[in-house]
Write a structure and sequence with these properties.
Structural class: alpha/beta
Radius of gyration: 20 Å
Strand order of the largest sheet: 6-5-7-1-8-18
Strand content: 15-25%
Oligomer: single chain
Length: 395
């Protein structure tokens, strides 16, 4: 509950933010662990609970967090039955990374690096070279991909080491910059239907003595954003994807491990003024702000030069009881973006970073009309957004 106007707000302590488990239990640790077990040079097993396999398949279901699987045993009986297998049979989830959003998470998966290294620290982030806001999912405005993210992908290094490597996804993703910098290496196979992807993923998995296959499905996330995770449309997609996972699991070739994970979870946000704070209508939050980046539950706030301290103070006073609000240096020191932040990435992070604790978002109805009317949201470090499964099926 907010404090009376005459009292100072009681700020959420930054040390109460549940920082992702970088280095031992995050999405960035998954592929390095798998390829280390396949003998790819330069990698070590970062997630100690996982047992090596000659053939590894990662099926990433966009938007299907740990809490959503736990809460829907009827719609996802097969996935629910696999919960005890998560994280090497410990029955525990892993963490997505901050922010818990698709561009950041896919880059973490594919590069094996946390956001502070790969440099995609949010849905949108400022390009320090141009001063423009860069949408890292849609790659607008255009920025040379290999400059923005210069590290080789784990897929590429595995392919060079002789592992049969493939990605099986929707054809539209084949030539996108995000695929290039995060998921390229080996061969890309575009298939339209989920069933085709499952069948081809199993086929590619069997194609080599050592193989690494990645496949992806996005519509859980799409329905969640549009209708919410408490909708029939979302539940219908969950039932469908549950069948896809079982279809793939039943086709695994010998000596295989299938890992089912996600890039983030999701939370439905009510449509009321208390839950949706409109930046474009709030003069206090706008004061001294040059650019608003990130997304509703994980904001990068870029201040006018010289106004950084004032913007931090105002955002703490207005939102500090509902958001963890940190300066750039505080967020970095707290490890939100990983154990270290590369120099080229430092200026992409907001002067102020705000991560939602409560069921609330900072929308921008004028600047972000599409995103502002979404029902389901994600991005922050709360368990419902941050925890993702690492379910396992072996043959």
């Amino acid at each position: 509950m907010a404090q009376p106007a005459w009292q100072d707000p009681v700020l959420l302590p930054l040390d109460t933010a549940p920082v992702p488990e970088y280095g031992g239990g995050s999405l960035a640790d998954l592929l390095p662990t798998l390829v280390a077990g396949q003998g790819v040079p330069g990698f070590t097993a970062a997630i100690p609970e996982l047992t090596p396999a000659d053939r590894n398949c990662v099926f990433l279901i966009d938007g299907l967090g740990w809490e959503q699987i736990k809460s829907h045993p009827d719609e996802a009986p097969y996935l629910h039955s696999l919960l005890p297998t998560s994280r090497g049979g410990t029955g525990r989830p892993i963490t997505a990374g901050f922010p818990a959003t698709t561009a950041t998470s896919l880059a973490s998966v594919g590069t094996g690096l946390p956001p502070g290294a790969h440099g995609l620290p949010g849905y949108t982030a400022r390009n320090p070279e141009t001063g423009e806001l860069m949408n890292q999912l849609r790659w607008k405005p255009w920025t040379p991909p290999e400059v923005w993210q210069p590290y080789p992908t784990v897929f590429r290094l595995a392919d060079e080491a002789g592992v049969q490597t493939a990605q099986v996804s929707a054809p539209t993703f084949q030539h996108t910059p995000l695929t290039k910098i995060a998921l390229s290496g080996g061969t890309f196979h575009g298939r339209l239907t989920g069933e085709e992807r499952m069948d081809l993923a199993a086929d590619r998995l069997a194609a080599g003595d050592r193989s690494l296959v990645y496949t992806y499905y996005s519509e859980i996330d799409g329905k969640g954003h549009r209708f919410g995770i408490d909708s029939d449309a979302w539940r219908g997609q969950l039932m469908y994807v549950d069948g896809l996972v079982q279809r793939l699991a039943e086709q695994l070739p010998p000596r295989s491990a299938l890992y089912i994970t996600a890039d983030h979870g999701m939370i439905d946000i009510p449509f009321d003024e208390q839950s949706r704070i409109d930046f474009d209508e709030d003069w206090e939050l706008r004061a001294g702000v040059a650019l608003l980046g990130g997304e509703g539950r994980a904001r990068h706030v870029y201040a006018v030069a010289g106004a950084e301290a004032d913007v931090l103070t105002v955002w703490q006073e207005v939102l500090g009881e509902q958001f963890w609000v940190a300066s750039r240096d505080e967020a970095i020191a707290a490890g939100w973006f990983g154990p270290q932040v590369d120099e080229r990435v430092y200026g992409r992070i907001g002067d102020v970073v705000a991560a939602a604790h409560d069921d609330v978002v900072v929308t921008a109805s004028v600047q972000e009309p599409h995103e502002s009317v979404m029902v389901g949201m994600h991005g922050s470090m709360t368990p419902v957004e941050q925890l993702v499964p690492l379910l396992e099926v072996r043959s």
